[in-house]
From TrEMBL:
Gene: thrS
Tree of life domain: Archaea
Catalysed transformations (reactions): tRNA(Thr) + L-threonine + ATP = L-threonyl-tRNA(Thr) + AMP + diphosphate + H(+)
UniProt-listed GO biological process terms: threonyl-tRNA aminoacylation
Keywords: Aminoacyl-tRNA synthetase, ATP-binding, Cytoplasm, Ligase, Metal-binding, Nucleotide-binding, Protein biosynthesis, RNA-binding, tRNA-binding, Zinc
Domain Aminoacyl-transfer RNA synthetases class-II family profile: 215-514
Compartments, as annotated in UniProt: Cytoplasm
UniProt source species: Methanosarcina vacuolata Z-761
Protein name: Threonine--tRNA ligase
EC number: 6.1.1.3
Cofactor-binding details, from the entry: Binds 1 zinc ion per subunit.
Length: 635
């Protein structure tokens, strides 16, 4: 069953014409109105035929939960076939709708619009964060046909128990302000925080599908960074030389930072036995869908993180309390998650992605909390240096109620550090392996959010993987484990930078990537062929990625194309520059739309400026020919 739930000022309908499958109704049901109501648009699906009673029970539970959240005792049940393309038979649909109506009656004022009639309706949505929600309900053991993996044997995708729990877990949503106050989402004024409001709506509605391509998709193609690969599965991308360069620089940067933080880099397999007793248990505790394949008559799964390999490695190690906290990191090329097709778009949500995955073994919860604080600050610094600042993302903090009661100061300090309100999700019961986690979430131009950095305190897996260390008394103890991705998926960092640039363009700013990530850092544009030799001299003196536009095009077109490629520094060479031994440089970071910032400086001054901007960051050589006339076009 698909549900679209609207908290409405009013909902009213009027029947117009019956269809061949219309139920017979009394005159009183041909029109109806309900004020201050939860309106439930409903589509009963073919999978519900397997167990209509269970569908009724789950739908009633969901409706009661949302009605409590929005504080209403009136519910309108409205059959709405347009929510699904895989509908049940009319007989089952009417049975389910009537069953839900009966179960809710007595507790609520309930009206049900008739099934199988063309109806006119009007509705007024209240517009608060909980006023528009969507839910999918499935009887146990069923799956929509589109959820199957089209691979050898056409096996069903593996859906973990944690993922199922995530869909049914009862959450309490709050806004935490830097002064330590927890506010009801509905009563907190989000108007001054438009991005937080978009993030709250996104999280609570659980609507992940996109209706159109976000701006970064056009940009990733135009800038020759990445594109869809039609020869592969959805969500598996191709990366052109510029995109591979950007990815490599980001990967090396995060690894360098992690090494400085004390993490040891390791490498582990991408494929594991699904029936391995320890791994099988962990699969059911991780909220993700897996790719499954068959090898030598064994069912395997492709990893969705580096946890499996690192924990199996930890199990075989001899660890002393003197080694703690012990940190290991892997740059997973790739991690695999069988994300749902409607959610896949550009670099935002992929099925194959690169994730820096760091795990820290801590002596006890006190040491884990101390590490959590340090890794929270580490993640802020990593994103800041990538070019994604605190103002660019929203913070979500998720925890169990027990953990919060014992660690309020830790949680409040997270809001104080970013100095803005954050979204909180709290559970009475722990459904997952962690008791605390945070994510930094980037909200894009379509108001969709994507998690970047995250840290989690894991209280299960040391026991599950039989990981232990020798304490000061020579006895074996279980460590507490932290999971950390300092930047989140590398592809998502690129997505966030492109989306941020697109939104800044709408604000009248000039879009660009950070200089250290720009494939070409300086482009030299000779006015004519006779200036190419001097352009080559300049290029030899610059310690950065330089190319030369030697094509037989007008100077205006060359400069415009450099602008469309977001080149940070464009150097135009003509007779005057050759005579004066200076260069005319357009500085993109200081330019405005239709008003470029040009300066006359020496090559040495430009070199010093760029060195300052890329200091402390990884560097790689230009992955393309220095001369544009020798380059192929990828897009």
């Amino acid at each position: 069953m698909q549900l679209l739930l609207i908290h409405s000022d009013y909902i009213e309908y009027e029947t117009k014409k019956q269809t061949p499958v219309a139920e017979k109704i009394e005159e009183s049901l041909k029109a109806g109105r309900l004020e201050e109501a939860l309106t439930a648009f409903m589509a009963v699906e073919s999978v519900d035929e397997a167990n209509p009673e269970e569908t009724i029970e789950k739908a009633v539970s969901e409706l009661e939960k949302v009605a409590t959240q929005v504080k209403t005792d009136r519910i309108m049940l409205y059959p709405y076939a347009h929510l699904s393309s895989d509908l049940s038979s009319p007989k089952v649909a009417v049975k389910v709708l009537k069953g839900i109506e009966t179960a809710l009656s007595g507790k609520y004022e309930v009206k049900r619009a008739p099934f199988g009639w063309y109806k006119a309706f009007s509705i007024s949505c209240k517009g608060h964060p909980l006023s528009e929600l969507s839910r999918s309900i499935r009887p146990e053991g069923t799956q929509k046909s589109e959820g199957k993996v089209e691979a050898t044997g056409a096996k069903e995708e593996v859906v973990s128990e944690a993922l199922k729990a995530e869909g049914t877990a009862k959450s309490y949503w709050r806004i935490l302000t830097p002064d330590g106050e927890l506010h009801e989402v509905e009563s907190f004024d989000l108007t001054p925080y438009p991005k937080l409001q978009q993030f709250v709506n996104y999280e609570i509605s659980k609507s992940r599908a996109v209706e159109r391509a976000p701006p970064h998709v056009e940009l990733m193609r135009r800038l020759e960074i990445a594109d869809y690969e039609p020869g592969s599965d959805s969500g598996n991308m191709r990366y052109y030389p510029k995109g591979r360069l950007i990815k490599s620089l980001l990967e090396n940067y995060v690894l360098d930072i992690a090494t400085d933080f004390g993490a040891m880099e390791v490498e582990t397999p991408i494929m594991y036995d699904m029936n391995h007793p320890t791994l099988k248990k962990y699969l059911d505790r991780f909220p993700a869908r897996q790719y499954s394949i068959e090898s030598d008559k064994r069912q395997m799964f492709l990893r969705f993180a580096a946890c499996f390999g690192q924990f199996l490695m930890n199990h075989d190690m001899t660890i002393s309390y003197r080694n703690l906290p012990l940190r290991m990191i892997e740059m997973t090329r790739y991690s695999f998650r069988k994300e749902q097709r409607g959610e896949l778009v550009g670099l935002r949500r992929l099925r194959a992605f690169t994730m820096p995955d760091m795990h820290s073994l801590c002596e006890d919860m006190d040491q884990a909390v101390d590490q959590f604080k340090k890794q929270y600050d580490l993640c802020i610094d990593v994103l800041e240096n990538v070019g994604i600042h605190i103002k660019d993302y929203e913070v979500a903090i998720r925890f169990t109620r027990d953990f919060y009661e014992s660690n309020k100061e830790l949680v409040v300090n997270m809001a104080r550090t970013v100095d803005k309100p954050v979204l909180v999700e709290m559970w009475d019961t722990r459904f997952f392996y962690f008791v605390l986690k945070f994510e930094f979430n980037f909200v894009d131009a379509l108001a969709k959010a994507s998690a970047l950095s995250t840290v989690q305190i894991d209280v299960e897996n040391a026991e599950r993987y039989d990981i232990s260390y020798v304490n000061a008394d020579g006895k074996l103890e279980r460590p507490t484990v932290l999971h950390c991705s300092p930047s989140g998926a590398i592809e998502r960092c690129i997505y966030a930078l492109l989306e941020k640039a697109a939104m800044e363009t709408e604000e009248g700013k000039v879009p660009m990537l950070p200089v250290w990530l720009s494939p070409t850092q300086v482009r030299i544009v000779p006015i004519s062929e006779k200036h190419v030799a001097f352009a080559e001299e300049i290029a030899q003196k610059l310690d950065c990625r330089v190319d030369i536009d030697d094509r037989d095009l007008s100077i205006g077109k060359k400069v415009r194309e450099a602008g469309r490629e977001w080149i940070p520094y464009v150097v135009v060479i003509g007779d005057k520059e050759v005579e004066d031994n200076t260069i005319n440089v357009t500085i993109r970071a200081e330019s405005e739309q239709n008003k470029p910032k040009k300066v006359q400086i020496t090559t040495e001054e430009l070199n010093a400026r760029i060195k300052g901007e890329i200091a402390g960051k990884p560097y790689r050589k230009l992955p393309l020919s220095k001369y544009l006339s020798e380059r192929p076009k990828f897009v």
